[in-house]
Amino acid sequence: MEKEIRNIEKEIKSYSDSSTSGIEKFRINFVSKKSVINKIFEDFKNLSVEDKKKFGGPINHIKTLAKKKLIELSSIKEQVGEKKDLDFDYSLPPQDDTLGSRHPLRIVRNKIIKIFRDIGFSIEDGPEIEKDWYNFTALNFPENHPAREMQDTFFISKNPDVVLRTHTSNVQIRLMEKEKPPLRVVIPGRVYRNETVSAKSHCFFHQVEGLYVDKGVSFKDLKDTLYYFAREMFGDKTKVRFRPSYFPFTEPSAEMDIKWKDGWLEILGSGLVDPNVLENCNIDSKEYSGFAFGMGIERIAMLKYGINDLRLFSENDKRFLEQFKGIN
Ligand code: PHE
User: Fold this and answer.
1) 25 and 162 belong to one structural domain
2) What's the distance, CA 64 to chain centroid?
3) Is there a contact between 139 and 173 (Cβ–Cβ < 8 Å)?
4) Do the beta carbons of residue 126 and residue 174 sit within 8 Å?
5) Is residue 86 a part of any domain in this protein?
6) Are residues 131 and 246 in the same domain?
7) Cα 17 to ligand 1 centroid, rounded to whole Å
8) Which ranges of the chain would DSSP assign to H, the alpha helix?
9) Residue 23 and residue 20: Cα distance in Å, rounded?
10) pTM of the full predicted structure?
């Protein structure tokens, strides 16, 4: 019996499982009616008077020890939670579990793409670091012509033939060089201009270009398509107007305005693809014609959401971004 008591005492002292199931196991083994300690009390009854004197003390001692241990295990559990939490490294920085929201430019870009997808346009992509040929020359900007200064360009000083694209029209050329009509694509992307950063202008912004080339594409197709776009984007009752304009790569060219509150607001540039541009891409301009357009995503987002400063789009201010939560 002496050895038995000593073993139980050792077991109680070394027990450390403070998980819910660990505590329950301890209670059953050492404190409950079925516990080993209770069993010893049963045996105790049959001992001689002499042995009773000898073992009474130690048996009561392990009984108290077990009760104290049970209380101790419960309080450990309360302090540090479940056993698995004991393995957790509390010195690690907390995990940020806040869910983000879609960026307003991404929301508007997706909406533009969806509107054109619904009428059979596919999506194209192209480089932001571009050769002069694609950004200017093939688009009918004559060399040393003032038209090049329409868009303030970032040049790479070591190689003046390389620019940061000033518009997404470069992808028109890349696509027409590679594939032959019929072509019907939209091209979203980032563009760069050497402008002072302010509420109204930025050194980079985003555009969606459109290109449609096939047999017999007319100015009427252009107007119908862009009118459809304006109504889908800004609502059924939206009024639009086309104003004559100039771009080296379209002829004739037009800017489209939408009626907004009391005035008219320009939202995109467009026109019939200049025959020279088709020929630069080895497309027969007697057989094919096309239209193209380009719009600024920021401009549309500013109208739709009443944003008044371009810089907000790239400042990563959570107070601004969080306002678009839940919009897809
Ligand atoms: N690339 C022109 C711009 O950035 C927009 C445009 C695209 C105009 C296609 C006509 C046709 O201003």
Assistant:
1) no
2) 61
3) yes
4) yes
5) no
6) yes
7) 71
8) 2-14, 20-26, 36-45, 49-80, 104-117, 132-135, 170-178, 219-234, 275-280, 297-305, 318-321
9) 5
10) 0.72
Q: Does some domain include residue 90?
A: no
Give 5-31 pLDDT, tens digit per residue: 999 999 999 999 988 889 999 999 999
170 C-beta closer than 6 A to ligand 1: no
Which atom from ligand 1 is nearest to the alpha carbon of 294?
A: 7
Provide the mean pLDDT of the chain.
93
Residue 293 beta carbon below 6 angstroms from any ligand 1 atom: yes
pLDDT tens readout for residues 77-105: 887 765 555 667 788 888 777 778 899 99
- Whether residue 64 is found in the same domain as residue 171: no
Q: If pLDDT is split at 50, 70 and 90, which confidence band does 284 have? A: very high
**What pLDDT does residue 236 have?**
96
Q: Tell me how many domains the chain contains.
A: 2
Q: Phi/psi of residue 164, each to 5°? A: -85, 125
Is 250 a pocket residue for ligand 1 (Cβ < 6 Å)? yes
59 with 133, same domain: the answer is no
Residue nearest to atom 9 of ligand 1 (CA): 293
Mean pLDDT computed over 59-76: 92
CA of residue 294 to ligand 1 center, whole Å: 4
Cβ-based neighbour number of residue 189 at 10 Å: 20
What distance in angstroms lies between residue 32's CA and the mean position of ligand 1's atoms?
85
Please, are residues 205 and 310 in contact by the beta-carbon 8 Å criterion? yes
Q: What's the pLDDT tens digit per position in 303-328?
A: 999 999 999 999 999 999 999 998 87
Residue 255 vs residue 18, higher pLDDT: 255
Same domain for 9 and 72, yes or no, is yes
Together in a domain, 58 and 178: no
- Contact between 327 and 309 under an 8 Å Cβ cutoff? The reply is no
* 119 and 53 inside one domain: no
**Encoded tokens for 87:** 């393995």
Omega prior to 182 cis, within 30 of 0: yes
> Do 151 and 299 reside in the same domain of the chain?
yes
Task: Find the domain containing 51 and state its range.
Answer: 2-80
